[in-house]
Amino acid sequence: MKKVLILGAGLVARPLVRYLLDQPDFKVEVASRTVSKAVKLIDNHPDGEARELNLKDEEGLKKEIADSDIIISMVPYSFHPKVAKYCIDYNKHMVTTSYVSEVMQNLDDEAKKAGILILNEVGLDPGIDHMEAMRIIHDVEEKGGEILSFTSYCGGLPAPEANTNPFGYKFSWSPVGVLLAGKNSAQYLKDGQQVFIPSEDLFKNYTLINIEGLGEFEGYPNRNSLPYIQLYGIQSTEIMLRGTLRNKGWCPTMKSIVDLGLLDEEEKEWEGFTFKGFIRHLMHNPAEEDIKKAMSALLNIEEDSEVIKRLEWLGLMSEEPLPVNRGSAMDILGAKMLEKLQYEEGERDMIILQHEFIASYPGGKKEKITSTLIDFGIPNGDSSMARTVGLPAAIGTRLILEGKIGLVGVHIPIIPEVYVPILQELKEMGIAFKEKREEI
């Protein structure tokens, strides 16, 4: 029996755990700081074990890694390099769904010397997006063509019938993760020119994206798209943009949230504060007593605008006491958003991932290729976010343990021996892209 160690038992872990428990020759241990979450995921399965583990317990972590055949790290990304170092020390393969940080990339040589694979970015975005992009890019190249333009947008949203609040959003993963992503700057390539968007202007730079059958959404750039020109091997491209998709109204609202200082991460004392007092403090206690007037003046938007209505609906102008006496503005906002932007029992979430390519071929033919994944959660079952993040990592883990992926070093899933079988198995599970090609 091969032993799989899963570190973390968060919102997207269940499909990953259950897939691996369904394999005939695997033992699965879920280790979490909150052991009750791990117990729930294992659900009395004879080949599963739940264990309490704090990642700060160095000796405990080392022992768990030494006793396993492969480690899946589903903990906050800042812990991945520490886990990776121990995997190198004990010659154990590792899988994560997180972006490759510079610290992680710097472990490539050590991982190769240890003969292990550290497979990162094998979730949804990053993950499935890379795999489908490379499938199409390699197909174009095999036909003698080259990529002139690549844009990709991905979003986790409520299904249309569950889109019942003014924000057009509900949490299917960590609120802090969603808010932290709003503090990233962005870089991309447009018409051959590099574009840089500072973090404070991120939500000013959105465009409307049409998704066939679902309508228009707001798309804004996600992190730094430029390295993917080289990673994807498409130096011919004039456009390279990877972005995030949200329902209409999200970007102007988040821009106001940024401008109010609600994404500040500095811990402060808030004892005795109401939300209204908290917002007044963030606005440096304006002379105007009417909080709505003060806020609209500071943000330079109309008092009856949809943005102000959303912030009022959230409760940011209320006399309700803050949920914590000490914390950051982002902690307070995250707690309030989690309270208000929840999925109700039986509601479905929805994943949209759309790639759009312009390809050129010998003889002057040009082609627009659109590949779209629309996936829905299972009512009273796994969310689409959990399935599309967890299942690629689970399949990748199985392939590594079965010796079907022979890579070593630090990798992402852009190589056919990784992406072809994962995409095929996802398709068999109903997680499939719809491709459309048209000459232009």
Q: What does this protein structure show overall?
A:
This protein is 35% helix and 25% strand. It has helices at 14-21, 35-42, 58-66, 80-89, 102-105, 108-114, 128-142, 175-181, 227-231, 250-259, 275-282, 291-299, 306-314, 329-340, 384-401, 416-428, and strands spanning 2-7, 26-32, 48-52, 70-73, 93-96, 117-119, 146-158, 186-190, 193-197, 207-211, 215-221, 239-246, 268-269, 326-327, 349-360, 366-376, 409-411, 433-439. With 440 residues, it is α/β, with parallel strands linked by helices. The chain is built from 16 helices and 18 strands. Helix 7 (128-142) crosses helix 16 and helix 15 (384-401) packs across helix 16.
Indicate the topology.
Blueprint (H helix, E strand, L loop, with lengths): L1 E6 L6 H8 L4 E7 L2 H8 L5 E5 L5 H9 L3 E4 L6 H10 L3 E4 L5 H4 L2 H7 L2 E3 L8 H15 L3 E13 L16 H7 L4 E5 L2 E5 L9 E5 L3 E7 L5 H5 L7 E8 L3 H10 L8 E2 L5 H8 L8 H9 L6 H9 L11 E2 L1 H12 L8 E12 L5 E11 L7 H18 L7 E3 L4 H13 L4 E7 L1
Parallel strand pairs: 1-2, 1-4, 2-3, 4-5, 5-6, 6-17, 7-12
Antiparallel strand pairs: 7-15, 8-9, 10-11, 11-12, 13-14, 15-16, 16-18
Helix pairs in contact: 1-15, 7-16, 15-16
Short overview:
With 440 residues, the protein is of the alpha/beta class.
Keywords:
single chain, 440 residues, alpha/beta, Rossmann fold, Dihydrodipicolinate Reductase, domain 2, 3 domains, 7-stranded parallel β-sheet
- In whole angstroms, the N-to-C terminal distance is 54 Å
CATH architecture of the largest domain: 2-Layer Sandwich
Uncertain runs with pLDDT below 50, 5 residues or more?
none
> What strand order characterises the main sheet?
3-2-1-4-5-6-17
CATH first level of the largest domain: Alpha Beta
Looking at the structure, what is the overall shape? Answer: globular
Query: Pairing-aware structural class of the strands and helices?
Result: alpha/beta
What Rg do the Cα atoms give?
A: 23 Å
Strand content: 15-25%
Number of domains: 3
What's the helical proportion of residues? 25-40%
The CATH homologous superfamily of the largest domain is termed Dihydrodipicolinate Reductase, domain 2
CATH topology of the largest domain: Dihydrodipicolinate Reductase, domain 2
Mean pLDDT: 95
The major beta sheet can be summarized as: 7 strands, parallel
By DSSP (H or I, 4+ residues per run), the number of helices equals 16
Query: Could you give the count of β-strands?
Result: 18
